[in-house]
Amino acid sequence: MSERNKITLLRAGDPTYLRSLYKDVLPTVISWMIRNNGGQDDAYDVFQDALEAMIHKAYQSEPGDEIRVEGLLVQIAKNKWIDKLRRKKYDDKVRSIEVDRYDSEYSTEPDIIAVEEEQQKQDLLATTLAKLSDKCQQLLKMIMAERPTEEIVKSLDMSNANTMYRRKHACMKSWKTYIDDSGYKQL
Amino acid sequence: MSTEQDKLLAYLDNRLSDAEKIEVENALAKDPALATELATYQSMNEFLSDQNAKEVALRNLKNIHAEMTSAGKSHVTVAVPEKNHPLANEGADNVDSSSGISIKSILKLIALVIGTTLFFYLGYQFINKGVGQVKPSEAPELLYASNFDPDDISFATRGEAAVDLLADAAQAFNAKDYRGAVEIFDKAISAGVMTPRATYSYAIALIAADQTEQGRLVLEELTTTHPIYKDDALWYIAMSHLAEGQKEGDNLAARSALAKISKTSKWYKQAFALLDDLGE
Question: What residue ranges of chain A have pLDDT lower than 70?
Answer without folding.
Answer: 62-66, 89-110, 184-187
